[in-house]
Amino acid sequence: MQGAQPEVKYLKDYKQPDYLISDVALTFKLDETETLVSAKMNLNATGDASQPLRLDGEKLELLSLSINGQLLNQDQYAVDDEGLTIHSVPAEFVLESQVRIHPETNTELEGLYQSSGNFCTQCEAEGFRKITYYQDRPDVMAKFITRVEGDKSRYPVLLSNGNLIEQGELDGGRHFATWQDPFVKPAYLFALVAGQLEFIQDSYTTISGREVDLRIYVESQNIDKCDHAMESLKKSMKWDEDTFGLEYDLDIYMIVAVNDFNMGAMENKGLNVFNSKFVLAKPETATDTDYEGIEGVIGHEYFHNWTGNRVTCRDWFQLSLKEGLTVFRDQEFSSDMNARSVKRIEDVAVVRAHQFPEDDGPMSHPIRPASYIEMNNFYTVTVYQKGGEVIRMYQTLLGKDGFRKGMDLYFKRHDGQAVTCDDFLSAMQDATGVDLSRFSRWYAQAGTPRLTVRSEFANGTFSLKVSQATPATPGQEEKLPFHIPLRFALLDGQGNRMPLNLQGSDKPVTDELVLDVLEAEQTFVFSGLAEKPVPSLLRGFSAPVIMDSDLTDQDQLFLAANDDDEFNRWEAIQQLAINWMLDGVAKLAKGESLQRPQGLVEALAKTLVDESLNPALRALALGLPAESVLAEKMDVVDPDAIHQVRSWLRQDIATAMTEQFKATYLKLAEIEPTADNASSVRRLKNCCLGYLTKIDSQLATEKAQVQFAEPNMTNVMAGMSVLVDLNGAAGEQALVDFYAKWQADPLVTDKWFMLQASAGEGDTLAKVKGLLEHKGFDIRNPNKVRSLIGVFARNQVHFHRADGEGYRFIADRILELDAINPQIAARLAGSFLRWKKFDSDRQKLMKAEMERMVAAKLSKNTYEIISKSLA
Fold first, then answer.
1. Exposed end of the chain (fewer CB within 10 Å): N or C?
2. Measured between alpha carbons, how far is residue 504 from residues 512, 524, 533, 707 in Å?
3. Which structural domain, as residue segments, surrounds residue 87?
4. How many distinct structural domains can be found in the chain?
């Protein structure tokens, strides 16, 4: 970064604002070349009214400023690049301002910008300051009235937060709409949308009998892709009423889908703005994964109405207060709508593949960070996914009834307030009487705890010794023990749960317990057992920890076949595969040959044909751990060896289970799936097809071509993936045909980019470089960047090419993007965070690229990521 380093903000420095805003009236005069924003605000001092008033503002042209109707002279205020200071103000006053902004040139997609010719806003975290001068912080909550004016032919739809209270015609072919939000909110929840949009409409009757108007706005060509999103919304509303007693509170709930969006969606009060990826779907254009993602994100943003909007964050350090809690809520919703064990496995896989590495890297931070340079960099898997795991632990410790009591008290105490993570913990503790003082360390300490579990059995007594330790992280060398809920059972020789008589405990005898691991070392003793048991540990992944147990391979095989906890059945197979592959990498380094893992193959074969299991669960078990997961298990990562060993194992499993894969695929291909199991059946069928690619290319090609011609995008993508994987003319033709058919649909062409950027074989870098020049790629569109450049940056074997060309390519793109959209550039910069995990040659190459980037004039977003990586 040229010049002074950016300012660091600290949680410890928080102080309440000197002034609060109670009411805001905004007027937007939308125009193609400029937009005028007028603001009228009622303010009052919280203490000493002699303090100057500081308002945030960036890239604004101030046209007028007045207090209580009196225009201010230029010597009464000062404007700088980050805001406006009024030197002297009364204790209570009305502030009016008018600014000029330019949404048409806003490529950062923060504040007010244009997407496909429509106006749209994104104000979280600090985008409202790019709309008008304001106290842009979450603890300043006000009631908003917003008037939007625009050309009626160009912008027939004018939307903002709350309920529509007035609309009408203006001179010159213009019109207006006025929206009133009756609930106080911080500026980050403000929203405005205007443009050429159509909508589908439905309604929902709440538990108190109120009818809510539901609308989803999209561009006209997408109007036939909204039904699934609407059904997901209605399911979300009912689930929140049934599960938490929470009812929607406005007369209308609106969703708008836009093509240019930095994130997945935004929960603005009553007017959610979504990345079109998480709204638009029909079977011809969207995969089963897309459908599941839409349901989850629709639910997430709806649930924010209470966990984020009605009760919000005091400051941005408390982000997990709303995001972690709402992630947990959307995960529970999706689990209730679909297969719970499958959803749990998928969520844990995200934590392990992305959050654990973040915990172990230079950007490691607690779910409540102590400091930041750029707030957008802390919309992380730690704050979201680990934050969700922390909320899940509350429920595990308190039980569902206790957790519900805590939630009820939280809303009763804090509705309409901006609060902290401590307030949430206090509500849980006060509602149940459970001491959660040590649990608070999950908010303050970074890093992933390591559990070491050792067991002994003698004379009918089983002892479980549990030790915990958490590695040092940046700024936190010493860690205190966490409060870890360890869900636990003992299985007999037939796989039945055994009674647990925990010595020294007043808990009743049961067949499953949640053990409170509170100390650095504890021993739990169970008596009265008729035979030596096999422990089922950390059932359902009851805490976000890394566990080292003394379970043998035979124990894991037993659990894979018998554990009634489906997560642990999957986990046992994963551990067997990880152990074998890590051993395989070590063998390659010594020049030894790889040998078939008989026990693992047998476990997979049994799982494949076990029809008592959900087909999707069987597919997950057959999916080997990702290369990135294996990399995290190694002290020094060898991406080429990992790729070679994993590919060898897939080939060997396919060879050993040839007949089972063929038979299962053909059987599933003939099944007429129901609405309830269709996606699960397709998942297992396509898993089998992927393995058939390794053993019978003729059969795989034949079946893949059949699927490629089907009117179902899940099967089309699986078929095209197989054809491309076979690396022949059929694959190249499939790519040509696919793009020719779908080139007008940007979300479908994103899948086309992703498939090519994720390829493990061939010269993927050359292919990706060529696709940068493709007419369907636009570096200003975040979805396109994520689909091509972002996917390549996660391609372990090609990003980490030994010649360093993968590093140089991504560094060049980061520098290019930083001038266009710093948020997206910073996200991409995260691909360098783990550079010290690799061999010395790769370290030198990555370090050189980071030094080249940090020497440039970077945004504070990207500077923070790169500088911390180097440090």
1. C
2. 17, 9, 20, 60
3. 1-194
4. 4
